Please model this.
Amino acid sequence: MSSQKGTFLVTGTNGGLGSAIVSRLVSAPDLRAYHGIFTVRNRDSAPALDAALGSSNATSSHEKVSLDLSRLVNVREVAAAINAKVQAGTIPPISAIILNAGYEEYDTQRWNEDGLDMTFVVNYLGHWLLTMLLLQSMDRETAKSPEDPHHNLNESYKEEKYRTMITTDDLEPIAKGTWSSTADDKTLWMSAYRRYGASKMCGVSMIHELQRRLDKDPLLHRISVLAVDPGAMNTGIGRHSPWVVRFLLFGFVAGWVGRLLVLLYPNGTWRTPGKSARDVLAAALDCGPPPLTERPKGIYLNGSELGEYNNEAKDPRKGRIIWEGSVRHAQLQRSETLLQDWE
Model:
């Protein structure tokens, strides 16, 4: 039987924010009592994660797991393996699932093996399915599920037809990538940025929709769903963008200027991975001070303060559309989730 206090699962740990979260989890004395499951696309090629583990002289219990969020069959395989370990008692129940992995395209558009838009399935659907499958392994007294919903609106949404993302009673256009497709875009990048925003909007909508379903579940009603906007920082998510964006905007502005700006404006646009990692873990662990409460639920945080977000993500009707579309496109079955109100 495991002697750890609980398990933290973090996705996307080979990136700037993900590796910063890992570094804090394995080095902070008060967090070493937790077992860590750190997922990356390929655990044998994860230099940022390895650096975070190596630089911290990590002595806590942890494991690196390969997880390809674009392949729903792999999401199911990974979830099944984790559930089996929790059931056998070799690792403790999950205290928090931190949905951090992200993917953004630039001048291309890709689809996964199921014909789903890659941005949608990596940023949202793969995470949603992972959460649904792992509910049976959650610590039902203390568990939380914070996620990174970072998304800023800009000129990409100037046209009226793009100001609303869910335009029908079906998630299909976003799931299949026909909404804001690259084929219809002459800017080379705006369509990809809009699809990224739509995938994040779907995740933010689950603050309310998933929390509503959990709250009325006799077994899972203590689980909290929170979202944290970590701000803009120097991470690898812009690796598909042109060099001007990668090196000037993210490398110089985010990497150097951001270090100064975060001191002046802690929850401003530009932040550091270290600061945002602290904010994410506070959402996952802390019960106060405000805006966190004794048992915070359904909260959207901008760093360490309450944040504002897309009105579309607050719409209960659209939340149900996203949920129903998620069940259909992930092909979720009754036997796969502990959640009673899952359809």
Observations:
- The CA atoms of residues 211 and 325 lie 17 Å apart.
